[in-house]
Amino acid sequence: MVPYLFLVFIQELIIFIIRETYAKPDVVIAYNIYRPITVCVFAWLFFHFSFKQFYRKIIPWIVIIYLVIVASIFLFVSSIKSYNRELSLGGGIALTLFGILFLFDYFNLDNAAEEEKWRPVLWITAGIVIFYPVVNICFAFYNDIFTKNAMIFGVYLYNAIPQILSIIMYSCFAFAFYLCRKNYSLV
Fold it and tell me: Whole-model pTM above 0.85?
């Protein structure tokens, strides 16, 4: 997870610099590259977390199908410089599906020691399963939310939802890292 979090940090830093430097920044390319990388990173993680052979067969196929669709759309349908809501939704669905497959595995465990071992992954999965479906719904209705200028606590709703859910997801990640560190220090 550390390399992934470093990648997210670098990406967000670059986007921040671009937004502060240029009057009308074009940061869509960064997100269009980031989404497939995120799907691949979490597919790799959940592939190694899966207990069932069936899940280990399904996860690579989900990634391959997603990447073929992404490449096809950017090569033949729309530019990589334009936001594609469907690809964003597809990535979120793939990540949520990986999380749900892990949850099926985790809740079928009958061994308390195994459950304790996998508890940090449970928290990472909880963050993913909470974040991506809600944010994807927000992005799916972006035009409707944007045109109505819906606000919450003085922040536009289309900005507030991802920010609030990012805090929840990264809090889950931080707690998972804490559990890993706690378990590591006991060994």
Answer: no
